[in-house]
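## Example record

The block below lists the input lines for one assembly entry, exactly as stored, with component labels intact.
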Amino acid sequence: MLTSQIAYRLKSAVWISAFSFLLCVVADLVSPTRSQASDARHEMVAAEGALAADAGLEVMKHGGNAVDAAVATSLVLGVTNAASCGIGGGGFMLIYWAQDHKLYGLDYRERAPMTVTPASYLRDGKPDERLARTGALAVAVPGELAGLDAALRRFGSMRFSQLSRQAIRLARDGFPISPHLAKDIRLTAADISHQPGFRTVFFNDAGLPLQAGAIAHNPALAALLERLGNDPVQDFYHGKSAHQLVDYLARNGGLLTLRDLAEYRPIWRSPISVEYRGYQVYTMPPPSSGGIVLEILKMIESEPIAHLAADSPRYLAYLVPMMRQGFVDRSAYADPAYVKVPVAQLLSASHILQAREVALRKNRAVPAIAVVHDHGTSNFCVVDRHRNVVVVTTTINTIFGAKMMVPEMGVVLNNEMDDFTVAPGVPNAFKLTQSAANEIAPGKRPLSSMSPLIAFRDGRPVLAAGGSGGPTIISSVLQVTLNQLDFRLTPAQAIAQPRVHDQADPDMVLAESNLPAATFSALRQMGYRVKSVSELGAVNSIRIDPEVLMGAFDQRKGGGVAGD
Ligand code: DON
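Predicted structure tokens for the full assembly:
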């Protein structure tokens, strides 16, 4: 709170950057918890970046609404959190519009180029998932700008050029490298340091990765954002940027064409919901995995958990098998334009009953191997003074996406093709072995774990949440929601709680190392293979009470809450 509000009043970009960075570092040092909280009365943004949260708040202070703020916040995140998201990627936006009391879901996820087929990912006749992970074949058609433009045209009150100002200023005048981004640059330096685009922005003159606190500049991105004016779709999907992007990919063996860009359209989808203990909980429909969060909530609803502790063995004995079963059912999820996804059936009372029974019989999957951590993707929540609520999860997939940056655009390209099933039995970067439903096809959108969520009580929005972390998004958003709705924790407490994750395959429960030792041993005694990990996912959330907004970001990844 203090971080963002004090920073907001300082006018100079450099001062804002330096000051909020310093406070974040100090907060990191003094705070033993894994979340950072804030209160406000009127409006709030909780994001994976303090400057992005500040940009959204500033828009609302100048009369903009939650969707205007979401556009500004997204664009700033694309600059400051470039390893995670940006205009080379895509996302989901879940909107509650107070005026008509309706929910809207916007799918601006990337789609496969029209020329790709599963055969494009064969090397020496064998499926090679690495082709979908790194390099030009990994890049799916970006949806970010088309999505932001569509949201703005439908709900916005400001023009795009007003909302891109902060992002342009930061890209042009400089932004501080966060500790998290510094880590991402270090982790991927071997893949990216030799490329002119990355080298200019994220490495110093000696070719060394910029450290946390160093000021980075992305003048090419600033120029591109400036050029977009008030019609980002024209330039990016039909104009100069489209040509630059396609030429760059073609030079590097990509298959994405000008036609792919010209034909890209975001899709408005009806959000799905369930009633959970008197709350109405909404999320995105497929190709989001939000329905899996809802299904697990329904499975656990009949268990009396409120009197248990969120890190207790008895609670986790319910949660883990149901989470696992939810992931088993995720195999039915994919792009609904290509596959009939039986969402209603999977959320029906009869299926929930059956799935619970199977879950509690501890359905086992194949043995496990390694565990993957990743940091692509960014989530943020916005609430404005009209009580419009927006939750955005946006991604370029894994750290720095395809590890490609178009130098003259300053844009990092996604590797969303790896979210598909490259071939039956071949796991992706998150060790997810997915079903045939999610196989690659021209024009198809890959299945996503991103699950933005808004919960209502008595017709009023009470909770917004979403997260990043590949498949751990599903389990992290689920647990932060349960921690608030059932255990009555504040957003900060709910986010700080240690989390667990079980995606059925690999057959293993991942548990954060600060889960009590007794809980670790109890889970092992129950027969689970439990692996201790430093962190699982990153969530931010806002609780919406009639008089006060309480927001928090996740210390696991860093961020900011800005409120007024
Ligand atoms: O849409 C998905 O499920 C993935 N592209 C998300 C990747 C992700 O969250 C990376 N880690 N933070």
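The longest strand covers residues 460-468. The longest helix spans residues 13-30.
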